[in-house]
Structure formats: C-alpha cells, structure tokens
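Students often ask what a holo structure prediction actually looks like on paper. The answer is less mysterious than it sounds. You provide the chain, you provide the ligand, and the output is a string of discrete structure tokens encoding the 3D arrangement of the protein together with cobalamin.
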Amino acid sequence: MASKLYEERSQKIKDTVNFKNERVTTCFMGQAAPAAHMNVKMKDFAMNSDIMIKTTLDYINEIDAITSVDCLNIGVNGMRSDHSLPMAWLSKIKMPGRELPDDSLWQVVETNVLTPEDYDVIIEQGFETVFNRIFPTLVDMNEFQESIAYQQKNGQNNVELFINSDLPVVNSGFASPPFEVLCGGRSMSQFFMDCYKIPDKIEKAIEVMLPGSIQSMLSSINPLCGRGAWVGGWRGASALVSPKIWNRLVWPGMKAMGLALIETDNIATFHLDQCWDRDIERFLEIPEKKSIINTDGMTDLRKARKILGEHVAIMGDVPAPLLATGTTQEVKDYVTKLIDDIGPKGLFITAGCDAPANTKFENMVAMFQAANDWK
Amino acid sequence: MAKISELLANLEMDQLMEAVQNELDNGTDPLEILKEGEAGMIKVGELFSSGEYFVSDLMMSGEMFKEVGEMLEPHLAGKTNEVLAKVVLGTVEGDIHDIGKDLVYIMLKSGGFDVIDVGVDAKPEAFVTALKESGATILALSCLLTTCYDSILNTVKAVEAAGLRDQVKIVIGGGPTDESVVKYTGADAVGDDAQSAVRLCKEML
Ligand code: B12
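The corresponding structure tokens follow.
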C-alpha cells in the first residue's frame, strides 16, 4: 500500500505539469552519480542490477532524509546501459570492469554500423530487418535475454522498493525517435552528411520507422511506476542541426511521439540535451499542460518560459560542471535565481540532463535544499 | 574565383565541385583555389560564431572543404600551402565525443595548420608520442565530460614528464571547459569554439 506521502507526491507531479503546484517540485536525476558517494565501484554499480538499484535508492534516501526529494525523473529498473543504450543509439557500449578500468564510466562506441543501403532496406522491408541484423552485433544476446528475464522476475519488486520509499517516478518509459536511432547507427558525422545529401530517403525511412518507435515507446511504460516517457532529443538539438534538417527530419518524429503519449494519457517529457532556443516556440504545438521540457543548462529557460508561458512544464537544469566542481553556495544561487526568474509553477528542479558521476554529494543536497527552501 | 568561397560558404556542394573543376580547366593555380576554399571556411566559421550556422552546417562545410582538397591534391604536386605550425589534437582519455574535435580539426586545417589527430579516448602517452614524432609545438585537447578533467591534467603532466612542456603550448576546449579548468590542469588557454582554436593557435606562434 502506498503511503499518504507517496500519494501526495504523485499528485504533485500531476499538479506541476498542470501548473497547479504551489511549491516547486524537486526531482532526482543522476544515473551514475550514486556510485562514488556510496563507495561502490563503478564496475559493480554499472554491471549488477541489484547493486545499481540498492545504491541508487540508498543515495536518494540519504538526500531525502535531509531535504525532500519529491520524485524521480526516470524510473531506475536496474537495466544495464550496455543493454539499454544500444536500442536507443545502435551503438556498442564499453563497460567498466569489462573493456574499461573498474572505476571508469561506460563509453558509447559510435561507429557506422548502418550503411547508406540500409535506408533502402528500411524503406522496403521495415526497420526490424535492419535492427535484427545489427542488434546482436552490439550486445551479448545471452546476457540480454538474462537481463529481460531479470526484469520479468524482479521488475515489480523493484518498483515497490521505490514506492515504499515514498518516491514516485515521472517517467517509466524511454524512447529514441527515429532520427536519433539512425544518427547513432550511422555515427553523427556520417548521418549529418546524409541529411544534406539524401534528405528524401531519410525522411522516408523515418516515416517507415515512426509507428514502430511509437509502439515500443508506449509498451516501455509501466503505469505502476510513472505514467510518462522520455522523448529523447540528443543529436537533433537545434544547436546541432540546421533549421532545414530540424523542421523536416527531427521535429515531426518528436512531435508525433509526444502526441501519442498525450493521447494515451501519459506525460510527454522531451529530454533535450544542448541548446533548443531556436525552436523552443514549436513546443506550443503540443497540447497545453500535458508535457515537460527537460533541459541540460544550455537552453535559455527564461526565454522558454516567456515564450511558452503555462503551456509546457520545465524540468531543469543545474549544469553538470556546476554539480561536479561548483561550491554549494554557487549551486544554491543558481537554483534560487532560476526560480526567482521563472517562478515555481510548472517547474521541476533537477540536474541538467543527468548529474555526472563526479557530482559532489553536498551539491546534490544543496540543489534540493535551495528548491525546497525557496520562498 | 570569389565564387568558390561563396559557394562553400553557402554550402552548395554540387555547384562548388563544378566551379573547382572549371577553375582547374581554365588553368587557375590550384593553390589559389585552395586559398579561396579557406576563405570560404573562414566565412562559415564567422556565420557559426554569429549563430546563423549550426553544427551540422560546419560539418557539411568541412566535408566540402575536404572534397575540394582531394580534388586539388593531384594538381598540387608538391606545391604546398605554407604551414603555420603543427598541432596535435585529440579528445582526452575516457571521453568519446568527437564532433567538437573534428570541427576544430577542420578549422585549424583550413586555417593553415598541419594537424595530427590522435582520435578519441586518447591516453596521455598517445599525445606525447604524437608530439615527439611530429615535433608539433601546439597540443589541442578536447574534453566534454567533467569526469575527464583529470585526463587533461594527466596529459599535461605526461607532456611535462617527457620534457616537452617548454616547447609545447597546450590549448583546451569542449563543452564544460573554462578558465578554472585551465588553472586546474596547468594548460595554457581555453577556447570556446572552433574558430577560437585558430585564433589561440595563431597567438601561440
Ligand atoms: C552528441 C552527444 C553525445 C554523443 C556523441 C557523439 C559523438 N560522435 O561525439 C553520444 C550520444 C555518443 C554521447 C555519449 C555520451 N554522453 Co554526450 N553529449 C552529446 C551532446 C548532446 C552534444 C555534444 C556535441 O557534440 N556538441 C557539439 C560540439 C560542436 O560542441 P563541443 O564539443 O562543445 O565543441 C565546440 C567547442 O566546445 C569547441 N571545442 C571543442 N573541442 C575543442 C578543443 C579546443 C582545443 C578548442 C580551442 C575548442 C574546442 O569547438 C566546438 C565547435 O564550436 C552533449 C550535450 C551538451 N550540452 O553539450 C552531451 C554531453 C556532453 N554528454 C554527456 C554524457 C554524460 C554522455 C555519456 C556518458 C552518456 C551516458 N549517459 O551514457 C556518453 C559518454 C560516454 C563517454 N565516455 O564519453 C554529458 C556530459 C556531462 C558531464 N559529465 O560533464 C553532456 C553534457 C550531456 C549532459 N548535459 O549531461 N553524447
């Protein structure tokens, strides 16, 4: 049975997206941040689901005992990044203790596993054909099966661990729009060149892929643990691609995925790395008070709030360098000033994108304190 | 000839290659054509700095510049542009982000530098070896991860340990780097975009 506090916090998530919250909502995000503070080797943290979950939960509870952590941005289900990221980015992942030293962070090996001919295959035969050929070259399929079996066996228990700690989750799903999948598979530089040289083909491939992307996004949502999903915007950022490419190849996919979430009564969280200033007004095309933009410190949130008003909630955006190397006072000043400038309504305070592995614990606490203490 | 720089700056790939071919057919000095290409790249860099161009545009221009270079190569036959200096460039150990580094490569190259690219996730020793083998006097390090500040530090230390620090200037750049990282790592300067890499390297001559 969920506690009263859990229910209150869950309601606060909904209220914040709806701009009905009185106080700012604090939100945890930091996939690699817990390990160092909890004295767990990155190797054990990244490679063992149970350790990852327990360490993360202990870490958040330690903060929550000092100052309230109202929710988590994305559910922690213990899925290893060498199993989850290849699906999103069609890239192999090097892991600590395996290809890398015990205490290093995982690495994305971006190579062009997709060939230009694959666009035709996608268009003619569907994305599955290409995915099924490539995926087994990116992950150890036996391990991957074990990982899925682990989720089936322990998923529910793990969700309850967080509920029992009074920690609701905004997003349980995670989706990579076709643009991002292709970009990862071709490697960023090759793919960007393709976007100039053969945009028609890419547009067609994206159209073919989109229904499948939407379907797998919706099936990744676990309603017991967060009625929402991320729509990822990493390499499709406004700062990275020209308006021509963005309008034609990035936004239509992201928008369709956002709308599909909203139609099924889920929250759409646009997870936006890098700077999206140029195109921020396009989020007005999403139905109002149903979505969140989750930015990383590079998008101008003052401008975003001005343009978007009470249309889209904001989740952000304490920058990684500040959390890693700043002082607690600097972190507090950043958060206070942000709330002063854009107001607490429709605002989740969290780390920009993802708190880095070397986030100082005291800075994490300072971030939440400043938000909870804001008057 | 101004057309070549304009076509490049406007990212008109097909027309550019045609124009280069025309100039070659007309007997224009390939070195002059190359200089025009460089002028186009400078323009692209300016458009990027002023926010009119975006990363993908910069990458596309780099690709075009490379293709022009390849087209001219057989005609240059030994004639080379004056090289300002040699630069060793790479993304530091533990970090695989290469877009920024590749842009710096393009801008330095089109700005008259000879660049030795040691790739991503490059160990301090890889930088030192490249410095020794090439005799480069500038080391340019790209770093996008706060967790890799120590890799910059270790690289600077390795250059010192190899006894090269007096001859080699070290510039850093990439997302989270700033003056405080220069101080922390003992590098010489930091630049915030690919254009500034050219400016800094010129200042260091
Ligand atoms: C694209 C991207 C990726 C791609 C990389 C593709 C590639 N081929 O490079 C992928 C998806 C693979 C990736 C992977 C990861 N990423 Co990443 N990524 C980004 C993103 C969105 C954009 C980076 C980029 O290309 N920018 C565009 C280029 C042009 O900018 P730039 O590199 O800064 O370069 C410019 C200037 O800085 C300068 N410059 C660059 N180098 C140099 C050098 C010199 C000498 C000079 C003078 C100038 C200079 O010139 C360039 C042009 O103007 C950023 C977001 C962000 N806010 O930056 C995150 C970001 C850098 N990534 C991040 C993270 C955490 C990761 C991962 C660990 C993710 C994960 N959870 O698994 C892995 C990294 C694995 C590893 N060990 O490296 C974090 C870093 C946080 C931190 N710790 O500091 C960021 C900041 C996102 C975030 N906000 O959390 N990423």
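The longest strand of chain A covers residues 228-233.
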